[in-house]
Design goal:
The protein contains 6 helices and 5 strands. It is α/β, with parallel strands linked by helices and 202 residues long. It has one domain: Collagenase (Catalytic Domain), CATH 3.40.390.10. The longest helix is centred in the last third of the chain and has 14 residues. The chain is globular and about 40 Å long.
């Protein structure tokens, strides 16, 4: 059954892997203390070799976690907390441009033993090293290209990792169309994510 779920997850990935999501967001942040459902998130920087370190990505991790909480998750009683920050050397994953049309399979296989099941792991690669991928999501792990971190691609892929599928309603975070219009999860989606967090991470 586990393998069937993994296969189905991989088959669903290509449809949300290419996005144009650069329009500025106009979402008023909402912050909550003591959220009911809380999940740790590790940030994993993918590097091609030992000549690089995570400064290559120039990511303010605290600001990124704040963005996810304030714009998307706190308002649904979900809290995201920073876990570990680390790097991995993986030329295959770093250079997804060499795996055109096989990106979801490469992401799945190359990260199979590189995540923890008590949290989410966000793998980051350069946008310039792909053919337009914004993000990919699997249970417990997701991949975001660096230029799409502060867009709705991030909550979209977190949603996939927390059990959500696509929903073709314009403006919904899980919609594949017009990603620049995405702003919110609906209450059913929020409930699904909270339950997944309760089951797996609390």
């Amino acid at each position: 059954m586990r393998y069937l779920i993994l296969i189905l997850s991989v088959l669903l990935l290509p449809s949300c892997s290419v996005e144009d999501d650069f329009a500025p967001l106009s979402i008023e942040p909402i912050y909550m203390d003591n959220t009911a459902a809380n999940v740790l998130v590790d940030i994993i920087y993918v590097l091609p070799n030992e000549d690089y370190d995570k400064t290559f990505y120039n990511l303010n991790e605290a600001k990124y976690i704040d963005f996810l909480n304030g714009c998307f998750f706190n308002r649904h009683d979900i809290g995201i907390t920073m876990g570990e920050s680390k790097t991995i050397i993986n030329p295959e994953l770093f250079n997804l441009k060499d795996n055109q049309h096989q990106e979801p399979q490469v992401f799945s296989s190359e990260t199979e033993n590189l995540y923890k099941t008590d949290r989410l792991s966000i793998f980051i690669i350069p946008r310039s090293n792909t053919y337009g991928i914004a993000g990919l999501g699997l249970p417990h792990r997701l991949l975001i290209t660096d230029e799409f971190l502060f867009t709705t691609t991030s909550p979209h892929e977190v949603g996939h990792s927390l059990g959500l599928t696509h929903k073709e309603i314009e403006g919904n975070i899980m919609c594949r169309k017009k990603p620049y219009l995405r702003k919110e999860f609906d209450e059913d989606q929020a409930y699904t994510m909270r339950e997944k967090i309760f089951d797996l991470y609390n």
